[in-house]
Every structure is written in structure tokens, then in C-alpha cells.
Amino acid sequence: MAIIPSMIEIRELTKTYGGIDAVKDVTFTASPGRVTGFLGMNGSGKTTTLRVLLGLSRPTSGQALINGRRYRDLGQPLTQVGAVLEQGLSHPGQTGRGHLRTQAFLGGASGARVDELLDYVGLADAGSKRTGDYSLGMRQRLAVATAMLGDPAVLVLDEPANGLDPSGMAWLRQLLRGHAEAGGTVLISSHLLGELEQLVDDVVIIAGGRVRLAEPLAALTGRQALRLRVRGRDPHALWAAFEQAGAQVRTDGPVLHVSGLTPEDAGEIAFAVQQPIYELTSDAPTLEQLFFELAQDNAAAG
Amino acid sequence: MIAVIRSELYRTLSIRSSWVSIAGTITLGVLFGFLSADFWSLFAGLGAFGIAVVTTSAHYQHRTAVLLFLGRPRRLRVLAGQSVAAVLIALALTVISGFTLFNPQDVRQFTGTLVAVPMIALFGVANATLVRKPLWLFAGYICWITFVEGLLGQLKDPWPFTSFLNAASGKPEGLLTFTAWTVVALAGAVWAIRRDLSGD
After folding, report:
1. Confidence of residue B128 (pLDDT cuts 50, 70, 90)
2. Any idea which of A6-15, A94-103, A213-222 has the lowest mean pLDDT?
3. Does B11 contact chain A (CB < 8 Å)?
4. Three-state SS at B1
5. ipTM exceeds 0.95
6. Is any Cβ of chain A less than 8 angstroms from the Cβ of B10?
7. Among all residues of chain B, which has the CA nearest to that of A45?
8. Taking CB atoms and an 8 Å cutoff, what residues of chain A touch B196?
9. A29-32: long-range contacts (C-beta < 8 A, 24 or more apart)?
10. Whether B7 and A102 lie within 8 Å, measured CB to CB
């Protein structure tokens, strides 16, 4: 079935609990055909934002819309939005198949779709097992199957990487990339930044309940200055020479992290001061490094 | 609402602990029916209340209320569907367990219970929606029935469970009072079901 493009829009969303803002003026969009990573530390406001988006909590002010409508105003919401929340929700005394059938009755999906999805998420053999006996990874797979029951265009996933082993994470990455490439919209939250780096197209970083950055990952990484990792015979001499040439230098022992120079410049400077170089590599910043730098900048800005 | 009713009935019957509870309640109800119609009424009522509380509050206890509200975001319709499902289960439990009441004198008791049991199922759904924690609810009501309705009220004052027993024995004033208690509890549930679902 063809996926109908659907947009998620969060507009100046504020949610206050007991006078404290859990999220404040949060604004961003998640577009069709793209995977949007909603990144932040625990307690930064990711889950609160997603709960408001999905109609589980009411906003204090602002709006969270899917295709221009609040979740509660969507007709047959499970055919438009699938959600993975809270590390796999199910009654522990119900079998995986029973759980999916219960949800299928709610969402209008067929029994055949239940068996198809059990097979798709690799739980065909565990379908008659009680979910209380499932591992965390199996519960996450069941949660993904639950989200996909209505074949929705929009997938919203809150910390889906928790409990998945590397092969499970690779499976999830492939599934979500496939969904986005087919025109679907994927909004995925996580505090495991490294896990999302290979998956997301757009990045929304939230800290302290406020969005600190929202832009394509390519733009974010492309804007960062090239950093070099340099290891030589005398790090002190190299440090002084690089700084004299206008570079910023940091170190974690014998290795220097140099920004503001090209590899060619660094090699020439080392040659000029007659210091042998043992290692000279370009060091592209990881999403995790970028996140912490942004967090530091924001903390410094007060 | 039909989707919620179907989903709730399927869920109840596909969870082993639920259908074992229902089967156990029916079996004990049948045995109590041999002993005394009053005992049977009491047991059928408490059974319907307990099952309604457990099936409704399990959604909050195991967090599946999240899935329920994602599937059906209009929460009053969810409450209505849960109420109808609980009433259907309560009626089935009452009819099946009451087949041992052969005595013609027990007809009034049987029909009175059949009318009152849906009310206590609704009362159970409403209370579970309001409190969300079955242990608190059961512990609270055991204390309430024992000390307030039993020791202080001598099962004569118009409190909820005393009214239910009067209704079950076919007394219209008992049914009226218990209906009023149920309406109050449902009004609380209508308010409570709109509350935010807190995180895990």
C-alpha cells in the first residue's frame, strides 16, 4: 500500500507540571521521507513532547499536530500513526499473538495482519508465549509490530534502542530507513546518540525542556571545523608550533586534537619544526561530540 | 465503542488469570447457590465487582491504557466500551452461576440480582478508573465494608454495598440508592479518565 505523506508539527509547545516547565516553547517539524532524531539526555523533555503529540497528555500551551490535526481528532488514528512507547507495553499474562489481536480489534486490523507482523518482527515462533516471559528485545519487537498493525505513514518511537542487541538495532535501523524511503515519516527519540548517527536525516536536540538545535544532520556535521588527530615524538613542541600557526589544540595525553588546520598544513608545520609524526588523521565529529559541545555552549551562555 | 467492547472481551478471555478468575467465581457461585440465595447474590455481586475492577485497573497497572488511548483517543467512548464489556461479563457470570436457584421463592432474589449486578460492574469500572490501583481499591473497600458498613452501619445504612445487597434481594429502594452511588462513581470516572497518563 502506498504511504500518504504526513507531517508532524510541534508549535511552541509548553507543558508545565506543578509550576515547573517540563518543556517550554518547543517547535520543530518532522517531514515525510525523512528520519528525524529527537535527541536529549534523560529528563530533557523528549518523552513529555511525544506524549503530548500522541494525545496522552494535554499541552499547557502550544500545539502538537499530525497532518495539521491533533492526535485525538484523527480518524482511525492507528492507520495513520504507530507509536512505540515505554519499552514494549503489554499485559504479561497475554501471549504475543493475543496482545496483537487485542490491538487489532481496537485498530480494525485483520487476524492475517497479526500473523504477518509476528513473522516480520521475528516473533512467529514466540507468538504463543506469554509476553511476561519475553526478553526486553522481544518486547521491543512486539511493540514495533503493534505500532505497524494499521500500516501507518507516521512512526513515533520513544527510546526504541533500549534493550535491543546490535543485531536488533541493525534490524530496527533497516526497518525505519525503509519506512522513510517509502515516503513515511519517522520521529525517533533517544539518549543513545551514537546509535542514531547512522539512521537520522534531521536532528532536533532538546536540553532542559527547550529545543537547542533543529536542522539536517548533514548541515550540522558540515558546519563543524575539521579536526585532526595528531601523534608525534614531542607533543609539547607540536602543540606550541600548531598554536603559533593559529590552531586550537586540545589533548588527552600523547594525542593532540587540532582544529583550524588542514592535514597538509599540520604536516608542513611538523616538518618545519623537525618533529616526526606517527599519526595524522582527520577526525570527523560524532553526533555525540556535537551534542556535548552544544550542551556546553548552552550552559556557558547561561 | 464496538471496537473497544470487542477488544476488551477478547483481552479478558485471552488472559489466563482473567478467565480462571471468572471460571472460579462461577464455580463458587454455583456452590453458594446450593447453600443460600442470599449468599449467592453476595458472591455474584462481589465477583462482578472484583472482575470489573481487575480488568479495568490492569490497563493502568500494566500501562496498556496507553495503547487503549492510542487506539481510541476519545476517552469517554473508551469508558463506555469498558463499562459495556464489564456488564456483559457480569451478566454472564450471574446467569450461569444462578442456575442452581431452583426454589420458586428465589425467583425474586435471582431477578433482583440480575438487575443489580450490572450496576455493581459499572461501579467497579468507575472506581478502578478513578483510583487506577487495584490493591489500594481492594484494601480500601475491605476496610470500608468491615468497619463502616458492617460494624458502624450494621448493614442497614444506605452505603454502597449495603444498598447493593438490598437491590439484589429485589428491594426497589436499594436499587435506587445503589444506582445513585453508581452515578456518583461514574461522574468521578468521567473526570478521572481525562487525566494525563503519567510516564512509567
Report:
1. very high
2. A213-222
3. yes
4. coil
5. no
6. yes
7. B199
8. 51, 56-58
9. A30/A185, A30/A186, A30/A187, A30/A202, A31/A7, A31/A185, A31/A202, A32/A3, A32/A5, A32/A6, A32/A7, A32/A153, A32/A183, A32/A184, A32/A185
10. yes
Residues in chain A, total: 302
Q: For chain B, percent helix, then strand, then coil, each to nearest 5?
A: 85, 0, 15
The per-residue pLDDT for B11 is 92
User: CA A172 to CA A15: how far, in whole Å?
Assistant: 30
User: Minimal Cα–Cα distance from B139 to chain A, Å?
Assistant: 23
Strand partners of residue A66? A8, A69
Q: In 3D, which of A48, A110, A49, A52 has the Cα closest to residue A78?
A: A110
Res A297: pLDDT: 65
**Percent of the residues in chain B that have a pLDDT greater than 90, as a whole number:** 44
> Side by side, which strands form the sheet with A202-207?
A81-84, A154-158, A185-190, A35-39, A202-207, A210-216
User: d(Cα A118, Cα A205) in Å, to the nearest integer?
Assistant: 34
C-alpha cell of residue B174: 436499594
Which 8-state DSSP code applies to residue A225?
Answer: P
Using pLDDT thresholds of 50, 70 and 90, give the confidence band for residue A230: very high
CB neighbours of residue A299 within 10 Å:
10
User: Are the beta carbons of B16 and A93 separated by less than 8 Å?
Assistant: yes
